[in-house]
Amino acid sequence: MCFFEPGAPDCYNHTMPSSLLHTVLIITIAIPPILFAIVVHEVSHGWVAKKLGDNTAYMLGRLTLNPFKHIDPVGTVLVPLLMLFFTKIIFGWAKPVPVDWRNLHNPRRDMVLVAAAGPVSNLVMAIGWGLFIHLVALLPDNLLIVKEAFVIMCAIGITANVVLMVVNLLPIPPLDGGRVAVGLLPPRFSRLLSQLEPYGLIIIVVLLVSGFFRGYVMPLIFSVIGVIEIITGLAKGSVLSVIIALLQAGQ
To answer: Is 42 an annotated catalytic residue?
Structure first.
């Protein structure tokens, strides 16, 4: 499969059958990796919190991969679909896993670990999707359409997880990066940053409209995807070539 050949990142642009590029089918293929990325992200927060002394998420039945326990109608369904149709960028969230910081062994330190668990899980999943492509390559050639469907799913899985990781690491409460920063900064600056949490969503929207995401966050996302390709042995630019082909097909 040319997906693995260095210097041939655009190979899938002219091999994917047009039927696979239909918007509805692409959304169907995209749902499992995106939903899995969001759900595991949230479960990771609760799992680490449990290991560090807080059983709140466990007691409420939130340490499960059952998506219905985590789906937020707005953040998990409406926002990702609207962003896909109008901006070609997919982002969303699940219902936050509840964590009672008072139960943690060392609240200030453990808050950082719990917050970081989500982005770390996304990094692990992105690498996992990259490695899974190698297994897809072992399918017989008479299953070409199936192979290409799985490659699309893997490319979306890598991209979705990297987007979730990078965006969530922005030092803006209530994003995970904001909570990590609150836990690491000196108390005075920590308090100042934590006071921004009620306005976090507004700040994110302003940054999105201002072009900050396009100018600074997107290049970082592309760079991280490139690192994932190196780690997993994929051809340089191969993941983005699949994503670009999907976006062009939807125009």
So the answer is: yes
Q: Check if the beta carbon of residue 115 is closer than 8 Å to that of residue 193.
A: no
90 contacts 243 by C-beta, under 8 angstroms: no
How confident is the prediction along the chain (251 residues), in pLDDT tens digits per residue? 445 443 444 444 444 444 444 677 887 888 899 889 999 999 999 999 999 999 999 999 999 988 888 888 877 777 767 766 665 566 667 788 899 989 999 999 999 999 999 999 999 999 999 999 999 989 998 888 889 899 999 999 999 999 999 999 999 998 999 999 999 999 999 999 999 999 988 898 888 778 888 899 999 999 999 999 999 999 999 999 998 888 776 55
Q: Which of 5, 42, 197, 229 is catalytic?
A: 42
Tokens coding 94: 């699940």
Question: Domain range spanning residue 79?
Answer: 2-249
Give me the number of domains the chain comprises: 1
Q: DSSP assignment of 73-127, as one string?
A: IIIIIIHHHHHHHHTS------PPPP--GGGSSSHHHHHHHHHHHHHHHHHHHHH
pTM of the model: 0.86
